[in-house]
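Lecture 7 notes: from sequence to structure.

We start with a single chain of 210 residues. Read the sequence below before looking at the structure.
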Amino acid sequence: MRSTSFTKTENLHKMNKKATSILTAVVIACTFSGCSNRTDAKPATEAVNTKVSVLSESDAIANSNLSKALRFVNEGLQKGDTLAFNELVDTAVIVTTGLKPGGPIQGLAEYKSIFTHFITAWPGMRFTIDESFAVGDKVVVRFTSVNVFEKEFFGMKPTHQVASLKEVHLMTFKNGKIVSNIVSATNLEYEYILYPLLKDAVLAAVATKN
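Now the structure, written as tokens:
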């Protein structure tokens, strides 16, 4: 016959084992279905709510300007599409570019005329936007364009040589249109090919400024 002490110990062990099983079941149930009586429990609708990021007005304008600048570069500068010029460039735009060494381009009409002449003589073969970003009313676009000298350009006969143009355009927007574009470029191949033409134009500009 087992002692009373042993019997009590055995019964206590069984009770503890049963309590542990019940507690485990409760924990599992709470994990998968949630416990509504918990003090930190939240309504289901609140639990699924997510924060919606709302752009500030300045961010929205910057994004809009960036989109317009990329369209201008892709359609206006790459393809010479005058419609892109008309829709995206202000009539009083000021453009600082090597396409006019003597001074900045003044106005939309002159910009279209000079650039149409360039893209006709130097059609593009490949075009890649390397980087772009917008801050406030400013947009910067850096691109690489590979062009070939196919037609007469400011009196110089075509050589059919290929040149890689690496340019950075700093555009300023006002009321949704480009009012200024400052172009910085590393166009050594292009400048070498056009050296006879550019030499006289640059020297003339220097002499005028002095």
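The CA atoms of residues 2 and 42 lie 53 Å apart. Keep this in mind for problem set 3.
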